[in-house]
Amino acid sequence: MPGVEEKTDPFGVFEPFRDMRDAYLDSMSKMMTDAVNTESYAQASGTMLDYYLAVSAPFRDVVEKSLLQALQQLSLPSREEFALLAERFTNLEMLVDDLDKKLDRIASRASEQPQVAQILGKLESRLDHLNQNLETISKSVSALVLEKQRIPAAIKASSKTK
Question: Is the distance from CB of 79 to CB of 68 less than 8 angstroms?
């Protein structure tokens, strides 16, 4: 047997008794295992457990009521109060998770803001460049209009001089 030191017998006098003991324990172990693994044992055990629970129910109620009174006198929470607290903590945890998701969305939008500002800055510089180009084109068109107006005047002036 484990945990029990067996003294060795130099002459082997007790060896047959040890063998007999081991054989007895093995056969009893097998017999008990076979008996416990039957359907009839399970039914009998279930019936005894049901009877025990039915008989002990009034005593359990008395013990539970007295325990609740003792807990109230000691200002300690009961099982129901712990269950309510656990439910509230679960609800709070879910709310915190929802807030965390919303904050993640806000943070991702906020991280996009510098990109948007950078893009807007690039667009503003492009618009400034286009505005400069438009001013250049406008000056060129104005110069062409003036030139066009000068050509007929120059033609008239040159025809008068001839």
Answer: no
Confidence (pTM): 0.37
pLDDT digits (tens, 9 = 90+) for 33-91: 998 999 999 999 999 999 999 999 999 999 999 998 998 898 888 888 888 988 989 98
Looking at the domain assignment, is residue 123 inside a domain?
A: no
Counting residues of the chain whose pLDDT is more than 90, the rounded percentage is 31
Torsion over CA: 16, 17, 22, 24 (sign): positive
Task: Give the integer Cα–Cα distance in Å for 80 and 83.
Answer: 5
- Look at residue 129 and tell me if it is in a domain: no
Q: How many domains does the chain have?
A: 1
Q: Residue type for 141, please?
A: V
d(CA 114, CA 108): 11
Residue 81 included in any domain: no
Domain that holds residue 63: 11-76
